[in-house]
Amino acid sequence: MNSDLTVREFEAIAGHIYKHSGIRFELGKQYYVSKRVAARMEATRCQTVDEYVRLLTASKAGPEEFQQLITLVTTNESYFFRDFDQLAAFAEHCLPEVIERKVEEGDNRLRIWSAGCSSGEEPYTIAIILREMLGDIGRWNIDILATDIDQNILNKARIGVYEPRSAKEVPPEYLERYFVNRGDQYYLNSDIKAMVEFRNMNLNDQAQMRRMRGFDFIFCRNVLIYFDDQSRKRVVDNFYLSMEKGGYVFLGSSESIGRISNAFTLCRRGNYLVYRK
């Protein structure tokens, strides 16, 4: 079994991934993709790359196999309270601003979208922050929607059990309050788990994106780095339509909207720069 991808084979698989996810793999990633295709060829007992390409693109099993492949080619590393300074800007500045406006308007609904949520650390972190910051949380109708293209990682997120490395940045008082330590694993409090809805979603799917409306905050951190400029712009434009006026988008620290879209206003909140509609 030879799983080393030729340029033609790589372009066929990379093109299929791009078409169905918006994730772009350049030719320089040929070795990276080859190793992951090799793993899936072994699992599916495909003897040649062409046979695997046919399985992926022209068989009834294709969509399910795509889910398996996308699990391998996307990085799902995450941990609780990642990028603490950004979360502090959200908790101490952006959230109170939005809450104050909603109180004035008589609106008790708060909608937050974690796009590209991976194994759930980000949306669960947001839920913990809301528990800590909203003294009257019972009066609020809170929706935290967490989406990812990888169904396998969503199944893990719903379970809410994590290795110590995922909890390494959790403040000790929160660790005691919201987790139960059993051996070498941390079990998330059921009240926090109940605050988050997980859903399989492709940010490149226009029909799905059109249904996303009314969000006050969107977290899409370290996701757009996998997209090309065309896909990034399409996603960001859809985020704009998905948001309430005065809402905020949070990206990864190395990501920027400014180069691809002027839809959002860059502003400073605390020690952090954020994007506001």
Quick recap:
Helices cover 45% and strands 20% of the residues. The chain contains 11 helices and 10 strands.
Can you give a write-up of this model?
- This protein is of the alpha/beta class and 277 residues long.
- The protein has 2 domains: 7-73, Orthogonal Bundle (Chemotaxis Receptor Methyltransferase Cher, domain 1), CATH 1.10.155; 84-276, Vaccinia Virus protein VP39 (Rossmann fold, 3-Layer(aba) Sandwich), CATH 3.40.50.
- The chain has helices at residues 7-21, 30-44, 49-58, 62-73, 84-105, 121-133, 151-159, 172-178, 190-193, 206-210, 229-242; strands at residues 109-115, 141-148, 161-162, 179-182, 185-188, 196-200, 215-220, 243-251, 265-269, 272-276.
- Strands 6-2-1-7-8-10-9 form a 7-stranded mixed beta sheet.
- Helix 1 runs parallel beside helix 3 (49-58) and helix 3 crosses helix 4 (62-73).
- The chain is globular, with a radius of gyration of 20 Å.
- The protein starts with 6 loop residues before the first helix and ends with a strand.
- The model has no long low-confidence stretch (mean pLDDT 92).
